[in-house]
Write a structure and sequence with these properties.
Length: 178
């Protein structure tokens, strides 16, 4: 618990009530921990230690994210790269084209995240299971059902690709009249 305290001491997202209980627990002398006086606090600290080491220390993350990884799910599939690239090219083009218009139109990554799932499941139904070797690795056009790892990869690609670069402002300011 000392390590948890040191690691999350300045973490504003770490629950304040848990942080206070950890400080209270660490303030108790070691010889007083053996009698049954602090048994409830010791039980809470054991539970908190398990949560921090085996799972996320944040309750919101624990509620929606599994603490294990399914290694059977494919991530780097051709299907994910095709959909992600199309979203990146389309979203970056629209965002770049309309960045100087008034009112400006911006497509956020949420749009790609919402549209990626139907596109992925559609491609999973349409693409054949054609296998080929690519740099010595066997790959497939359709390795199985569309999964959450592919969906996350597409969302990450869209999030990174949708932003217009700051150098865009330099080019625009060079063409402005003095």
């Amino acid at each position: 618990m000392q390590q948890v305290l040191e690691f999350h001491q300045y973490d504003q997202n770490f629950p304040h009530s848990v942080m206070m209980k950890i400080k209270e627990f660490l303030a108790i002398p070691e010889n007083e921990l053996e009698n049954g006086e602090h048994s409830e606090l010791i039980r809470e600290m054991k539970l908190e230690a398990i949560l921090v080491t085996e799972n996320s220390p944040y309750a919101e993350v624990r509620a929606i994210v599994e603490n294990w990884d399914d290694h059977e799910l494919h991530v780097s599939t051709i299907r994910a790269y095709i959909i992600g690239s199309l979203f990146v090219f389309g979203g970056a083009f629209v965002n770049q084209l309309f960045t100087n218009r008034q009112p400006s139109v911006t497509i956020l990554a949420n749009v790609a995240q919402l549209l990626a799932y139907p596109c992925g499941t559609g491609l999973a139904k349409i693409l054949p299971d054609k296998r080929f070797k690519f740099f010595g690795t066997e790959m497939s056009l359709n390795p199985g059902p569309f999964n959450k790892k592919e969906h996350m990869l597409i969302t990450i690609m869209a999030t990174v690709g949708f932003h217009t670069p700051y150098t865009n402002n330099i080019i625009i300011s060079q063409f402005l009249p003095m």
